[in-house]
Amino acid sequence: MAKILFVVTGADHWTLADGSKHPTGFWAEEAAAPYEAFKAAGHDVVVATPGGVEPTVDRASLAPDVNGGQENADRIATTLDGMDELRTPLALDDVRLDEYDAVFYPGGHGPMEDLAVDGVSGELLTRALDSGKPLGVVCHAPAALLAAKRPDGSPTFAGYRLTGFTNAEETQAGFADKARWLLQDRLVELGADFRESDPWAPYVITDRNLITGQNPASSAPLAAEMVKRLDG
């Protein structure tokens, strides 16, 4: 049985280019699908957030039209309701990486607000990468990689093959012209080898112990890859 750290955004909004605050948080499927996979495999999950705040689910991510219909939306909502770990998160400052076998970051626009500039999370990501433990990051959560630096200031994830929510997807979602910056652009700027597939299609990239997924549909196959590594 492995112990998996879920690092979840603590933000409940995303500040847009015009200064307005768009309500957000974590994306439901990206937390629920991996949680279901990890628990089904017999593993434990511990949630941590910046400051230990209880994370907020993006209400838009609970709608039937983004979950393939009402039945799946209901299943995801039920899974989240049963995730007691979300109600009692650790503070990121209190996390001891050596207590965990893997680290996972679900997305949503929330990480664009807080984890993208969170030095504690950035240090954790650097140590997780260097540890060789499975490190899964999906959709908008690769924004957290922007805060990961080496002691000399160089980006931790420069040169890694990875994916995340694409400019094309942000455009189709209606936010590309409203955002202060786009995730794909920033990941390319830090020197990552960014890969993308068709918008909204499941797509997972692995490079050493880093496992990244492009979008919400990628969260389940990403979790399956993590489970395979943990059980291997």
What is the topological layout?
Layout: E1 3-7, E2 13-15, E3 21-23, H1 28-40, E4 44-49, H2 70-81, E5 90-91, E6 102-105, H3 110-113, H4 119-131, E7 135-138, E8 161-162, H5 167-173, H6 183-189, E9 193-194, E10 204-207, E11 210-213, H7 219-231
Coarse structural class: alpha/beta
Question: So how many helices?
Answer: 7
Order of helices and strands: EEEHEHEEHHEEHHEEEH
Q: How many strand segments?
A: 11
Task: Please report the distance between the alpha carbons of the first and last residues.
Answer: 12 Å
- Overall mean pLDDT stands at 98
Outline, from the CA principal axes?
globular
Describe the structure.
Helices cover 30% and strands 17% of the residues. The chain contains seven helices and eleven strands. It has helices at residues 28-40, 70-81, 110-113, 119-131, 167-173, 183-189, 219-231, and strands at 3-7, 13-15, 21-23, 44-49, 90-91, 102-105, 135-138, 161-162, 193-194, 204-207, 210-213. β10 and β11 form a beta hairpin. α1 packs across α2 (70-81) and α1 (28-40) runs parallel beside α7 (219-231). The protein is globular and about 45 Å long.
